[in-house]
Amino acid sequence: MPGELSFCETYGLYNFRDIGGYPCSNGAVVRRGFIYRSAGLTQLTTLGELLLRDELGIKYIFDLRASTEGSKTLTAGIITQHVPALDWEQSRQPIMDHFNSLAEDPIHAFLVVYEHLLIASGPAFKTILTFIKQHPGCPVLIHCDLGKDRTGILIALLLTLAGVSEEDVLEDYHLSERGIEPLIASKTARLLRHIGPEQPPRKIERHFWAHPDSMKACLRVVDEVYGGVSGYFRFLGLNDTEIDCIRRRLVEAE
């Protein structure tokens, strides 16, 4: 089922799902068993590794986290490529603007950081897009810390490129809110240590929201500033032939 969630202590997988199965505008569906998404893998168990490698056949993992956000070394058979989508120090101002806006206008708070991510994460996104183009037979897992912001933007762009309805794109994003519930307590504590507990942001719990309007606002920026997803991918340096190839990689016949 599209959007089926799996988070389980047995596997150490949170906010994990296959993005495949969503219907596309041309009558096809998003390809199943090709692109998976999740929160960070720092709690991944041996059974989780076996699930990823042996049952799902995942051969490649893209880790969008900064080097300060933790790491996990997997067993043989799965290659992990670290492609940081955000540098906390270089991006400190928009990050702090995000946290400081959560109490008054959470949708704006996410848009502030999402607009920044569209630029800051561009090189990481291009690396993953190029891999998808060049390796159509290689199932991949894309993750960041929570699996909803950096990962969420890229997945929303991919689903939109494939022709998935905006309603389904936003619903897939919203699923992350439930997917990260078991992580909120530990992630809040880590955030406070990183930001500084002396002046904790008000309504910090809203940082863990994945309200559809937040991604909707981000996609409006993609339309208005870049001329749509294809325009944004051109901004990253891909040409129309490459973009069309990626689109075809993402879909399969119903």
Number of strands: 8
Assess the beta-strand content as a share of residues.
5-15%
CATH superfamily: Protein tyrosine phosphatase superfamily
Measure the end-to-end span: 13 Å
Helix content class:
40-55%
Number of helices: 10
Order of helices and strands: EEEEHEEHHHEHHHHHHE
Task: Tell the overall outline.
Answer: globular
Spatial order of the strands in the main sheet?
1-2-4-7-5-6
Described by strand count, sense and barrel closure, the largest sheet is: 6 strands, mixed
What is the architecture at the second tier of CATH? Alpha-Beta Complex
Please, how many domains?
1
Cα Rg? 17 Å
Domain Tyrosine specific protein phosphatases: 126-180
InterPro entries: Prot-tyrosine_phosphatase-like, Tyr/Ser_Pase_IphP-type, Tyr_Pase_AS, Tyr_Pase_dom
Organism: Aspergillus violaceofuscus (strain CBS 115571)
Protein name: Tyrosine specific protein phosphatases domain-containing protein
Question: Descriptors for this entry?
Answer:
alpha/beta; Protein-Tyrosine Phosphatase, Chain A; two-stranded antiparallel sheet; 10 helices; 47% helix
Write the layout of secondary structure elements.
Elements: E1 6-8, E2 13-18, E3 29-30, E4 35-38, H1 46-55, E5 60-63, E6 79-82, H2 92-101, H3 106-120, H4 122-134, E7 140-143, H5 150-162, H6 166-179, H7 184-195, H8 212-226, H9 229-235, H10 240-250, E8 251-252
InterPro entries: Prot-tyrosine_phosphatase-like, Tyr/Ser_Pase_IphP-type, Tyr_Pase_AS, Tyr_Pase_dom
Domain Tyrosine specific protein phosphatases: 126-180
GO molecular function: phosphoprotein phosphatase activity
